[in-house]
Write a structure and sequence with these properties.
Blueprint lengths: L1 H25 L4 E3 L10 E5 L3 E6 L4 E5 L8 H27 L10 H38 L9 E3 L1 H29 L20
Helix pairs in contact: 1-2, 1-3, 1-4, 2-3, 3-4
Length: 211
């Protein structure tokens, strides 16, 4: 019962991580305009995401524009897009696999060994998906930091970390932690199986001596 509860908790964490990845890739606040130097007081806030850029006025009006060309996008945006999409797809397939291999489902009947293998595969897929999201967000954040500290970047062209990066980091952590719980639970269940002993041979007929 405890193993089933731990498995259910791991699946819940990984599922929340998958939802967080979708929310992160859809958000536009991957990087936000920095208020440093002469740019402290401004009537406009700029945000850039993976799919569009937005400008928020002090009056509350927000104007967004999608990127015109895919080939003209910076390399970090294209790579981050690909890694986030791979992470989301891996998490989606992991949810389908875990729905078959979890102990609280009736799929695969009473074949516990097969269910453990399927659940282990789902946990590994969650970890891989979370790692892809973590790698994509870290690469994008590293590029923001490089441009911020570069002496060739103008003051009004510097950006800081946006909220989408923190959502992506939290989602990646939840997915990997949940996948780790699922993997540990499956290995623990496999290690706890009772050993099998060879069947004893029947004794010979009574009263018969062997030389």
């Amino acid at each position: 019962m405890a193993n089933a509860a731990l498995q259910l908790m791991g699946f819940a964490l990984a599922f929340l991580g998958s939802v967080g990845m979708i929310a992160s890739i859809a958000m536009v606040q991957w990087k936000a305009s920095s208020y440093v130097g002469d740019n402290i007081i401004t009537a406009q806030a700029l945000y850039q995401g993976l799919w569009m850029t937005c400008a928020s006025q002090s009056t509350g009006q927000v104007q967004c524009k999608q990127y015109d060309s895919l080939l003209q996008l910076p390399a970090e945006i294209q790579v981050t897009r690909a890694l986030m999409l791979v992470g989301i797809l891996m998490s989606f397939f992991a949810i389908l696999v875990e729905s078959v291999g979890m102990k609280c489902t009736t799929c695969l009947g009473d074949n516990k060994q097969q269910k453990n293998k399927v659940a282990l595969a789902g946990g590994v897929m969650f970890i891989v998906g979370g790692f892809c999201a973590l790698l994509g967000t870290c690469m994008y954040a590293n590029r923001i930091a490089q441009d911020f500290y570069s002496p060739f970047t103008p003051t009004n062209g510097r950006y800081e970390f946006g909220g989408a990066l923190f959502v992506g980091w939290a989602a990646a952590a939840l997915a990997m932690i949940g996948g780790g719980f699922l993997c540990c639970n499956c290995r623990g269940g496999a290690a706890g199986k009772s050993p099998r002993y060879p069947q004893a041979r029947p004794a010979g007929p009574p009263g018969k001596d062997f030389v």
